[in-house]
Amino acid sequence: MRAFQKVAEKIRLDIENGVWRIGDTLSSERQMAQQYQVSRSTIRRAWEELETMGYIKWDAFSPPQVINVPQWPTAIARSSLTQWNQTQTKPVSSFLSDLMSAAASQARFNFEIGMPDTSLLPIFELESVIRELFTQRTREVFSYSPTAGIDRVREAIAEEFLGRRNLHLSPDHLLITSGSLQALDLLSSLWIRPGDIVITESPTFAGALQIFRAHGAQIIGIDVGTEGVNPAQMKDALSRHDTRLIYLQPYYQNPTSVSMSEATRQALLDLAISYHVPIIEDDAYGFLAPGHSLPLRAYKGAEEHVIYINTFSKILAPGLRVGLIAGPPDLIYQLTQIKQLGDLHTGTVSQLLVEGWLRSGNIDQYIQAVRKVYAERIQTAKQLLPQLGFPIWGNPHNGFYVFAELPRSLSALAFHQYAAKRDVLFAPGLAFGTDDQFRHWIRLCVSTANPMAIHTGLARLSRLVKAYKDAPGSFGL
Ligand SMILES: Cc1ncc(COP(=O)(O)O)c(C=O)c1O
Question: Which residue ranges traverse the bilayer (predicted)?
Answer without folding.
Answer: none
